[in-house]
Amino acid sequence: MQVSRKRKGPRLNLREAAGRLSWLPGHAAVRILVRGVVVCETWPRRGVLWTPGVVVVVIRKPAWIVGALLFALVPGVVFAHGNGEGPSIGRLLFAWELDPLFIVPAGGAVWLYLAAVGRVNKAHPKSPYPRRRTAFFLGGVAVLSLAIVSPPAAYDTTLFSVHMGQHLLITMVAAPLILLGAPITLALRVASRTTRKNVLLPLLHSRFVRFVSFPVFAWLLFAGTMWGSHFSPLFNAALEDAWIHRAEHALYLSVALVFWWQVIGLDPTPWRMNHPVRMLYVFLQMPQNSFLALAIYSADDVIYKHYATVQRDWGPSPLADQQIAGISMWIGGDLLFLAALAVVIAGWVKAEELEAKRQDKAQARRKAEAAGPVS
Question: Strands, E, within 248-309: which ranges?
């Protein structure tokens, strides 16, 4: 099928443009026009991604759709944080910070996950990997991208309230969604028997993993990281240095994954908590989150020197912005913990229903065996 759309404007040499972009993975066919005619050839079940007036990319391999998404955002790339410039519609839509130190690992994780799902589905067509798990995992990576490289995230070193929202997305939304994708279970299913026996299972049951994933330690690690990072030189240092900032994000995500691993319960873990314990585990995080948020909100002075020295003539004052951040952490964090509690309760109810059905079937089977064959 041929699709064409004509407008007045300069036409590029399509063959030359495609040659310049031949490095795109998946043998992507490229048709480009800048503010001119847009012509693209489509294939069945192929993805087409485009930025208006900039680029049209036709992907022959859907697995590379992530790469095309990133390429389509190139016109709005931003390389600096906290320059004090006020937000605008253009910046909020197109000022994506395409940090390769985030893009490459995140894109690689998505590619590996989708490739593993494809292998599992091909090897076991009658029991494919659940689509909802794939959707959860991709949603988690999308939220992580929104928190770290989206246009609003560019203001995380300008406004503390934005920075707080960023951390809530990483620790309270992205991490649980990624774990709802059950990546460990997927890795165990796709791995060879030798890899599973000699690498994955020994790692899963190693002393280090058992220690880190112990529920009491995981709970204290999460709470301690929140308090330690907000009331130590680390936070202000992260605002001043991009590498420390990246390390802070990696720390938050890692700690959150360890914490929520015990709650989600889809992947195998050295420690298995029943649903009442999971509820207590999550519920007890709410008081410490509230106290931390109130400590930030009620501070008489700006806690982090960086925010006090940012030159800007828009938005709330540094102290008012800090108070907004504290309220966001208090209300937003507690609401997300309550949502997690609701999910745990729903899972508990479902587990009880399944157990009741299992016991009913077992009892019926025992009665049938006791009655003996019918003559």
Answer: none
Contact between 41 and 31 (Cβ < 8 Å)? yes
The per-residue pLDDT for range 227-283, each reduced to its tens digit, is 999 998 888 898 888 899 999 999 999 999 999 998 998 888 888 888 899 999 999
Cβ within 8 Å of residue 77, ≥6 positions away: 96, 97, 98
Give the distance between the most distant pair of CA atoms in the chain.
92
- What pLDDT is recorded for position 267? 87
Residue 335 structure tokens:
């609401």
| Per-residue confidence (pLDDT) for residue 314, from 0 to 100 | 80
Q: Mean pLDDT, the chain, as a whole number? A: 77
Rounded Cα distance between 137 and 181, Å, is: 4
* Token reading at 189: 């299913």
In terms of Cα–Cα distance, which of 172, 166, 136 is closest to 149? 166
Query: Residue written as tokens 């709410």?
Result: 286
Q: Residue 4's CB: how many other CB atoms inside 10 A?
A: 9
40 forms beta bridges with: 3
Query: Domain boundaries in the chain?
Result: 1-72, 82-357
Beta strands per DSSP E along the chain:
2-5, 29-31, 38-41, 47-51, 55-59
What 3-state class would DSSP assign to 290?
helix
Residues of the chain with pLDDT under 70: 1-95, 372-375
Instruction: Write the single-letter amino acid at 271.
Output: W
Using CA atoms, how far residue 137 sits from 106, 117, 331, in Å, is: 11, 11, 26
Q: At what angle do helices 100-123 and 65-72 cross, to 10 degrees?
A: 150
Give the rounded distance of the alpha carbon of 356 from its chain centre: 35
Ramachandran sector of residue 124 (left: φ over 0; alpha: ψ -120 to 50; beta: rest): beta
What is the SS3 string spanning 60-92?
CCHHHHHHHHHHHCHHHECCCCCCCCCCCHHHH
* 39: phi then psi, degrees, rounded to nearest 5: -130, 125
